[in-house]
Specification:
Number of helices: 5
Strand content: under 5%
Helix content: over 70%
Distance between the termini: 14 Å
Number of strands: 0
Radius of gyration: 14 Å
Order of helices and strands: HHHHH
Length: about 130
């Protein structure tokens, strides 16, 4: 891929992240917290994949994307440890929300996932704009 293709892919993934965030906020507004957690997590996931687009790195599994992000960006202090912690929590809560029978998602928990998605998008956009 040339630089323009990379830029287009990164921007496309940021737009996906923003769309997922809008969906999370809409679900949150109608007290659909499990769905809001899911969409907030995907917002975070797509923002991370936008960052990885810059180095033309991709993985099939979500766990690999998160692990790589932690190894190459969090542990090397490109992004804060707090953000890394919150990304990992978002993945944990999304999996519980999606796969654990009778799991009850609190409003506070869901709000935190949405806040993490906003933080991740903001950090990703800043990083991408500095690199492109």
């Amino acid at each position: 891929m040339d630089n323009n293709d990379i830029k287009v892919l990164a921007q496309y993934r940021i737009e996906q992240a923003k769309e997922n965030l809008e969906e999370a906020e809409a679900l949150f507004a109608i007290n659909k917290f499990k769905g809001a957690n899911n969409r907030a997590y995907y917002s975070i996931f797509h923002a991370i994949k936008a960052i990885l687009a810059l180095e033309q790195t991709d993985f099939k599994k979500h766990s690999s994307v998160i692990a790589y992000f932690n190894k190459e960006y969090i542990s090397k202090n490109v992004f804060s440890r707090e953000l890394g912690k919150r990304v990992n929590e978002a993945r944990f809560f999304r999996e519980k929300s999606d796969y654990v029978d009778f799991y009850i998602v609190t409003k506070e928990e869901s709000k935190m996932q949405i806040d993490t998605a906003k933080m991740m998008i903001e950090n990703a956009e800043k990083y991408i704009s500095e690199k492109i």
